[in-house]
Amino acid sequence: MVITETPDLGTPAPRASGDVTLTIDGKTITASEGTSILRAAKLAGTSIPKLCATDSLKAFGSCRLCLVEIEGRAGTPASCTTPVAEGMVVHTQTPTLKRLRNGVMELYISDHPLDCLTCAANGDCELQDVAGAVGLREVRYGYAGENHLADAKDTSNPYFTYDPAKCIVCSRCVRACDEVQGTLALTIAGRGFASRVAASQDESFFTSECVSCGACVQACPTATLTESNVIEIGQPEHSVVTTCGYCGVGCTFNAEMRGEELVRMVPFKDGKANHGHSCVKGRFAWGYATHKERILKPMIRERTSDPWREVSWDEAIGHAASEFKRIQAKFGRLSVGGITSSRCTNEETFLVQKLVRAGFHNNNTDTCARVCHSPTGYGLKTTFGTSAGTQDFDSVDHADVIMVIGANPTDGHPVFASRMKRRLRAGARLIVIDPRRIDLVRMPHIEADYHLPVRPGANVAVLTAMAHVIVTEGLVDQAYVAERCDLDAFYDWAAFVARPEHSPEATQGASGVPAGDLRAAARLYATGGPAAIYYGLGVTEHSQGSTAVMAIANLAMATGNVGKPGSGVNPLRGQNNVQGACDMGSFPHELSGYRHISDAATRRLFESDWGVTLDEEPGLRIPNMLDAAVDGQFKGIYIQGEDILQSDPNTHHVASGLANMECVVVHDLFLNETALYAHVFLPGSTFLEKDGTFTNAERRIQRVRKVMSPRNGYEDWQITQLLSNALGYPMAYVHPSQIMDEIARLTPSFAGVSYQKLDDAGSLQWPVTGAAPEGTPVMHVQGFVRGKGLFVLTEYVATDEKVGPRFPLLLTTGRILSQYNVGAQTRRTDNALWHEEDRLEIHPSDAEDRGVKDGDWVKLTSRAGDTSLRALITDRVAPGVVYTTFHHPLTQANVVTTDYSDWATSCPEYKVTAVQVSPSNGPTDWQKRYETFAHDHRALAAQPTE
Amino acid sequence: MNDLDPAGEPHITTTTEERLVYMANQIARFFASQPHEAAVAGAAKHLADFWDPSMRQRIRAHLAGGGEGLNPIAREAVAALKR
Ligand code: SF4
Ligand code: SF4
Ligand code: SF4
Ligand code: FES
């Protein structure tokens, strides 16, 4: 086995244009116009020595190693900055060039330690390689002169080390931070000999602006910036390409291994979602896989007040199955259900819903996507005909206007955000609709044209008012609408939005958005060229979540912004496999590929394949399962990879539902909060320990590859299979590829998908069909999937969660870069260093009214409950609005969220809760009791009784 | 039930029946901007497509018992449910 390396072509590919023919070292070659000589030579098999150039960055021309001679031109130009030209005759190896390159190398080496044999980068160092390539044999300058060999290392970042003694000041790191990541954290400080890489204002990496994405480490040609793991463990010996298990961007990585030990995750250059970039989570935060709190043995207990007992897999599975059977015999077929996970693979998710439908014989299956993007599914299916985003990520390069609504890409979807930022720096215009001034509103070289600070809960008012402007000011793309959309519905809609009560002036009181700004933003969106909408949970997690998604779709159709490059409606998915979990038939009312369970033909297809009769009625959703549990009708649940106690709204209600059940089976990596109420714990496997596929936010299906054996003994799909067999519904898969074959057989949009095809193509964007065997990067190109695009009336209905004298502030929630959702994984890595606790952001005037100072403990109270956390005073939030993240179990932000939810999908209204904030001395009694309770339960697990 | 009795904490959870009425009204409110017949049909189809039989049965029983709290479109939609 070897490390898969994608060759470095030195400079990026130019935008496609015509070809030119030239000669390099006597060989005639053809290259596209604008290509550098360095790249053209490499493509033709000739390597020119280089140090400051790499193909992820614009050419810089500073190291003077890539010099060439060109006939008819004077001097020795740098091949990285010189484009090819018709008829050019280039020489890359001449005595003059050799002498010049030798001289350059000598200077570098004279200020570089010669400890190659003991250097962490030994075998993976471009300086070493280039010294060999130029044939350096002696260094005349010696170390007696001034040098940097004694400069101190910076080890402040937990994941990589900066050793300035080895730096050759090529500035690749600086340019990577600027161009690839877009954080601009690094500079070259000082001049000439004194010049050195500096983070922010000469701070340590950790305290600087650096977000630890790793792009600089990736770009560094020497051992100056090196993963600390490589220093500790040594160079990897083989690598496997796999997909990140964190967010919906779906970055692919080379997992670089030594045997079964993971040394580092290196972003995969050929990854079509990330093109070689990564964020701190996927790149570095995988240490949770070996965290000491991970549970590796199955456990059971009779009652949740009993201590856990470690048992064999046979006993655990047998116990769970017999409990489910007992419960169904006593309380009926419908008294049990299952929850699939957006963190698990497509194959695992498919299997869990199959177990419920075929093994439990009901449709009580749901997924945690319920609590995030279910409105996206409903809204886009209704208007366009497909429950998915319309574009690929690359499309953003063609957008002239970018509208971000209720999403915070730099924190939630960092690698895509870097792409977006690059496009914005190149001149695309930006509209941000968000209650909070997210980073994107103003950052180096980026400034939003309009930030519409909508009051939490009023998205539909704002979006409908934008439609009002577009219709009443004559900005509709009439030809597009006439050709592609249902015209009757369009006219009804146009008349509806044109009503005076939908004007920006009439709605600004409710929405908090100044009418003038809203009008200007609507005009820009409608007339600024290809316009793309990116949105997140700030749109969906509302009582009008589905309505807002449809309002977005209406805007895109009215302005002709669907089905072409640079446009579209693009949900940014939270968890890695939200799209996949929805595609795989996790929802109680539909089978894979979004086909309603009441459709007899679809049911027959599954029935004949599975050998069972399927229930034709939709099953219960998660909140309804919990209601039924509280009412005593729902008694058993199998939960794979989900922590509903922490992630679902109104924690108290979830807790009483769980407490009322007789068999709660939690299948997860850690004893999560839900497991406090569990009777059976089945230890799960990490994404590093299994085969499967994830589907990212661009509908891109990518392989997850097993790089080490599951420490718990089984891959997750095997565990579901064991349970199904014990329940009496036989499953006999030997590899997940067979599950994918079944999915393809039963799901038209996956018809052309197989592991072989994925291995060949790298990734595929569904639909993959006979008509589109290579997949579908952009949807609705020829017309809408549903036939004609459907405009839907979107009346703004204020949420019932209202502020009043007792609860005068609106709480909204979000996430930050270093942490992931409820934090079960990221908190168990060094990422915790960046986010020690959740804080409550509050506007200075609201804080002053309450006598709250920065860093004070405050009590956050809503109609549902209260919790305490520390305050962070900032004008990022408007007066009247407070904000917090939800990464820590002790904060229990969902103790205060209510159970209001989206009218169509029951997606909880996380983004709006009326609250009061008051000074407090520390955690509430409930938090203290909860901490003790959780601690005791875990302790019981740590000391199993014999 | 264990010692962390959530029932002792202040919260706003109502009975399941009240929640079903609330949800049915919410659905009806979305369709209310459409012409009356379409609104009723839309709301009824939504209930049939997304509510499990036990929820539909409970809301129908609630209507049969007077349907307290249901708004007019929700009432008609529930009445239109076949089962
Ligand atoms: S890790 Fe990323 S953000 Fe930090 S300095 Fe390097 S490139 Fe910049
Ligand atoms: S740290 Fe690495 S990439 Fe940055 S200037 Fe030094 S050698 Fe070049
Ligand atoms: S952006 Fe998302 S998919 Fe990419 S590395 Fe970060 S967490 Fe993983
Ligand atoms: S690689 Fe061309 S000047 Fe450095």
Any idea how many domains of chain B?
1
Q: N- to C-terminal separation of chain B?
A: 35 Å
Q: Give the uncertain stretches of chain B in residue-range form.
A: 1-13
Report the mean per-residue pLDDT of chain A as an integer: 89
Topology pattern of chain B, helix = H, strand = E = HHHH
Assembly status: heterodimer
Tell me the strand percentage band of chain A: 15-25%
Structural class of chain A: alpha/beta
Structural class of chain B: mainly alpha
Query: Biggest interface and its residues per chain?
Result: A-B, 50 and 30 residues
Query: What value does the Rg of chain A take, in angstroms?
Result: 29 Å
Helical coverage of chain B, percent range:
55-70%
Could you explain how this protein is built, in words?
The complex is a heterodimer of chains A (946) and B (83). The longest helix of chain A is centred in the middle third of the chain and has 19 residues, at 313-331. Chain A contains 29 helices and 36 strands. In chain A, the strands form 10 sheets. In chain A, strands 13-12-27-26-25-14-15 form a 7-stranded mixed β-sheet, with helices on one face. In chain A, strands 31-35-32-34-33-36 form a 6-stranded mixed β-barrel. By secondary structure, chain A is of the alpha/beta class. Chain A is globular. The model of chain A is unreliable at 942-946 (pLDDT under 50). By secondary structure, chain B is an all-alpha fold. Chain B has helices at residues 16-31, 36-50, 53-64, 72-80. In chain B, α2 (36-50) packs across α4 (72-80). Chain B is globular and about 30 Å long. The N and C termini of chain B lie far apart (35 Å). Bound molecules: iron/sulfur cluster (3 copies) and FE2/S2 (inorganic) cluster. FE2/S2 (inorganic) cluster is lined by residues 50-53, 61-66, 78, 80 of chain A. One iron/sulfur cluster binds at residues 244, 246-247, 249-251, 274, 278-279, 281-282, 414-415 of chain A.
